[in-house]
Amino acid sequence: MTEHPSLQPYVDAWSHSVDAIAELVGPLPEADWNRRTECPGWSVRDVLSHVIGLETELLGDPRPIHTLPRDLFHVVDEPSRYMEVQVDVRRHHTAPEMTSEFEYTLIRRRRQLRNERRGPEAKVRSVLPGGGEITMEALLRLRAFDVWVHEQDIRRALRRPGNLDSPGAHIARDILLHGLPKVVAKRAGAPAGTAVVFDVHGPVEFMRTVRVDQNGTGSVNGSPSLGPAVTFSLDWETYLRLACGRVRLDAVRDKVKIEGDEALAEAIMKHFAVTP
Fold first, then answer.
1. Which alpha helices (H) appear in the chain, and where do they start and end?
2. Is 209 helix (H, G, I), strand (E, B) or coil?
């Protein structure tokens, strides 16, 4: 339990997801660690390496000194290069090495979180590419989001669906919805006065409308629109995969019902991913 109750929901969601990941990978035979996930270039082992790497950095462990191979096609810029280091150093680790390090990292991280005394507004170092500082609340929210999304990556790779309505799912929903106005108004260039509706069903259900005001600024809320330019109807898992850049519209078109302006709909879906 943290000293500040407002932070506890994020810690609980993080804990729920890392426990689920541990349960998923614990019994895996060596070959299944190499199964591809929807994260470009990353296997199940690589996804777990990423989670371990960021948690060890939050523990204060130094980043590895490591030179990446030049043939990693998914490493396209400095942010992806930054993230890849913690992954590539573990690329040849065995299953027991991976599960042991994960277990030990979680023990240390839970102890750190139990003893955390800083409040929600305290400034802490970000582990994202580019560094900088964010609030403790933002950091814990992002960690809960990140580990839940990667839990789902592993589940899809292993064909072990579940936890689509867990605490982390609701945190993920709020973070992904926060990025919608920028997608519609800025990236897709929806004109002033436009309304776009997202009707999502499944384990997590919601209907949200993005409206673009006369200044070209977007906002999102739960009030319905009587004459939207576009309405998207899709299930929660498909929304997640699209918004996290795991798939493009062409791969899941049969799961997405689109009504209205086709050109605007295509522009929105082209820029729909809001994660790095």
1. 8-25, 44-58, 78-88, 95-114, 136-158, 167-178, 180-181, 236-243, 249-252, 262-270
2. strand
CA 180 – CA 206 distance, rounded (Å): 14
- At 163-220, the pLDDT tens digits run 999 999 999 999 999 999 999 999 999 999 999 999 999 999 999 999 999 999 999 9
Q: Given 3-state DSSP classes, what are the helix, strand and coil percentages for the chain, each rounded to the nearest 5?
A: 50, 15, 35
| Residue for token pair 């400034």 | 123
Q: Which amino acid is at 41?
A: G
Long-range contacts of 107-111 (CB under 8 A, 24+ apart): 108/59, 109/55, 109/58, 109/59, 110/15
Q: Interhelix angle for 44-58 vs 136-158, to 10°?
A: 160
Backbone dihedral region for residue 163 (phi beyond 0: left; psi -120 to 50: alpha; all else: beta): left
CA distance 95 to 42: 16
Q: What is the number of residues in the chain?
A: 276
Judge whether 243 and 273 are in contact, CB under 8 Å. yes
Domains of the chain (ranges, CATH numbers): 5-158 (1.20.120.450), 179-270 (3.30.1050.10)
166, 139 contact by CB (below 8 A): no
Supply angle C-alpha 223, 227, 233, rounded to 5. 70
- Per-residue pLDDT of 68-127, as tens digits, reads 988 898 988 988 999 999 999 999 999 999 999 999 999 999 999 999 999 999 999 888
